[in-house]
Design goal:
This is Transcriptional regulator. This protein is of the alpha+beta class and about 290 residues long. Helices cover about 30% and strands about 25% of the residues.
């Protein structure tokens, strides 16, 4: 396998070469489709089934653009799925490889066409090979995230005191359930609590609804439920809103990048507000006919 080299532009590009039939070498990693895993020395990283099948397809078509439709046809057998299912799988593959969509070393997004596993690149002359060093997450990262969440809660709570609606005939009841921590990991309890406070504060800023907490019973209420889960080892927030008859009328989720959770929760609640028909200017929307 050829070593990593620095191109003339200063950008690092790693080789991608098939080592043997069935297995594919991607930088310092070897992908085994049969085992659904990446390995490098003694390190193993397990891939979810669809992520493994997608990476297997990219390896077979190395250097070629594989369209969104081709991935759906082979990995999902052409079934109708959510619009963000393929990007979520590609994000998981990149995370396992230590790749960055903005500066790809392995998997490139080709606008309006699809994705491509980059071919091996020959190093320019007179440039010494270098060894890729993957940065380890800083131990202070989670502390900074929690501090950001708490700061956001304080800001939203202050704004909510000015904009929260009083009970009125045009206000629809919205019951916000406590965030369910489904990670099974004690270290994410504080993150679940911070998400709970942030979601409640964001909901209280919505126009045209009256927010209630917990198990309060209200007729014709919309119920907002949230779960904190682990997706390939990363925390992800999943939200859904249900009408009084149990029908799901809205869903939202974060991308799985832990540092983006506060901003993505805010955007998700804005999406719920738009779905319910609230107006940004503050006027309550008319009650829907039943």
């Amino acid at each position: 396998m050829r070593s990593l080299a620095r191109a003339g532009s200063g950008r690092r590009i790693l080789p991608v070469a098939e080592t043997s039939e069935g297995d594919c070498t991607i930088g310092g990693w070897t992908f085994s489709p049969a085992a659904n895993e990446l390995w490098r020395g003694d390190e193993r990283r397990r891939l979810e089934h669809r992520a493994a099948r997608t990476l297997e397809l990219l390896c077979r078509r190395r250097g070629q653009v594989v369209s969104h439709e081709e991935i759906l046809a082979e990995v999902w057998s052409g079934r109708v799925i959510s619009a963000n299912s393929v990007p979520v799988v590609l994000r998981d593959i990149r995370k396992a490889l230590g790749d960055d969509a903005r500066e790809p070393r392995f998997i490139e997004t080709v606008a309006k066409r699809g994705y491509r596993l980059l071919p091996e690149v020959t190093a320019p002359e007179a440039v010494a090979p270098e060894t890729l060093v993957m940065s380890r997450p800083r131990p202070q990262r989670r502390k900074r995230l929690l501090a950001t969440l708490l700061a956001a809660v304080l800001i939203f709570a202050g704004l909510a005191s000015w904009f929260v609606l009083r009970p009125g005939p045009a206000a629809r009841p919205l019951v916000v359930k406590a965030v369910e921590d489904a990670t099974g990991a004690p270290r994410y309890r504080s993150l679940a609590r911070a998400c709970d406070e942030l979601i409640t504060a964001s909901a209280q800023r919505m126009r045209g609804v009256q927010v209630f907490r917990g198990a309060e019973d209200h007729s014709d209420a919309i119920t907002l439920r949230t779960r904190l889960i682990l997706w390939n080892g990363a925390p992800m927030v999943m939200m859904s809103a249900q009408a009084a008859d149990g029908a799901v009328i809205w869903t939202g989720m974060t991308s799985g990048v832990e540092s983006r959770i506060p901003a993505e929760i805010g955007r998700a609640i804005q999406g719920l507000e738009a779905k319910l028909g609230a107006r940004p200017g503050g006027a309550a929307f008319p009650r829907r006919r039943v």
